[in-house]
Design a protein that fits this description.
The chain is mostly beta strands. Helices cover about 0% and strands about 25% of the residues. The chain has one domain.
């Protein structure tokens, strides 16, 4: 399944935060699912409704990401 891209800089690498401010590296798949980059990591406790781009200053809803 393809990964969605940042609408600003066109990379797929994102992260999400939890209440403590910890970051988890993620990708957003074309079906809108947010998955951890590390398959063994858990997304539990992280806010999956707001993703942050690793390449630029963009952040927002995973629904705003774009396909290739």
């Amino acid at each position: 399944m393809r990964k969605l891209l940042c609408p600003q800089c066109k990379i797929a690498a994102m992260y999400v935060k939890n209440e403590q401010g910890d970051r988890l590296l993620v990708y957003v798949l074309e079906n809108g699912e947010v998955v951890a980059k590390d398959p063994e990591a858990s997304t539990e406790g992280f806010d999956l409704t707001d993703v942050y781009c690793l390449g630029c200053s963009w952040h927002g809803s995973p629904k705003r990401l774009m396909q290739r």
